From TrEMBL:
It comes from Lentzea tibetensis. InterPro entries: KR_dom, NAD(P)-bd_dom_sf, Sc_DH/Rdtase_CS, SDR_fam. This is SDR family oxidoreductase. Keywords: Oxidoreductase. It comes from the Bacteria. SUPFAM superfamilies: NAD(P)-binding Rossmann-fold domains (SSF51735). Residues 10-183 form the Ketoreductase domain. Belongs to the short-chain dehydrogenases/reductases (SDR) family.
Length: 259
């Protein structure tokens, strides 16, 4: 049985909500009946949504973004901080400016947009909900994207702190997202054979779809999660099978178990 969450008429802002995971999140809220506003630096259309241009690292642009959403729709019920990411770079050789920009996008920008949304939500009788899109890189080594992993770890801590500071009017939660199949999967996992091989390392046997992530975001924003705040929800298909299990030959060398 498929149960669709009803967020009819709720005003939802999704940063970076036009491609990949962000588009999946936007689509999920549209299906739930929400009024969805997306923002990004470059416009791209997701059916059923409206778009506003914004660089979420820029305080003036964020202030204008929030003012425009409120002037058009009267309120902001849900913010999903999805904008983020980082290209591969060696921590030993990447420039200080590179690391600064990664941290700005993945940690400081979500804080900036959340501050603007909270100022609106605190004045609303029904408050609001904020969902941070974090990563499993926050909880494990992130070689090649070290600054990104560190920023996402900071985002999880920020989630817990804001949930305390902004309660009871505003709930704040995060999604620790694992590997997702998007239009850019080939950049991370290679061709179809490589993607299939990576998918076999996931206990559920596949990479997530953007819509999988969207469903979890809708849940955290919905009344079903009304007593959930400061939480980090793992959305990773069961995680990763420990590498030592593949390397170990204990099973083949073991003696018959004693009776």
């Amino acid at each position: 049985m498929c149960v669709e969450l009803d967020l009819e008429g709720a005003v939802v802002l999704v940063t970076g909500g036009v491609r990949g995971v962000g588009a999946g999140i936007s689509r999920a809220f549209v299906r739930a009946g929400a009024v969805v506003v997306t923002c990004a630096r470059r416009e791209s259309e997701v059916p059923g949504t409206s778009f506003l241009p914004c660089d979420v690292r820029d305080a003036e642009q964020v202030s204008e973004l929030m003012s425009t959403v409120v002037s058009r729709h009267g309120r902001v019920d849900v913010l999903v901080n999805n904008a983020g990411g980082a290209p591969y770079a060696s921590a030993a050789t990447a420039s200080p400016r590179f690391h600064q920009k990664v941290v700005e996008l993945n940690l400081l920008a979500p804080l900036l947009v959340s501050q603007a949304a909270n100022a609106v939500m605190q004045q609303q009788p029904s408050g609001g909900a904020i969902v941070m899109v974090s990563s499993v890189s926050a909880r494990r080594p992130s070689p090649g994207t070290a600054a990104y992993g560190a920023a996402k770890a900071g985002l999880d801590n920020l989630t817990a702190s804001l949930a305390v500071e902004w309660a009871p009017k505003v709930r704040v939660n995060s999604l620790n997202v694992g590997m997702v199949r998007t239009e850019q999967s080939h950049l991370h996992y290679g061709n179809e054979e490589g993607i299939a091989a990576v998918a076999r390392t996931v206990p559920l046997g596949r990479l997530a779809s953007p819509d999988d992530i969207g469903g979890c975001a809708v849940f955290l924003a919905s009344p079903l999660a009304s007593y959930v705040s400061g939480a980090t929800l793992l959305v990773h298909g069961g995680g990763e099978v420990p590498a030592f299990l593949a390397a170990s030959n204990a099973a083949s060398n073991s003696e018959e178990e004693p009776s």
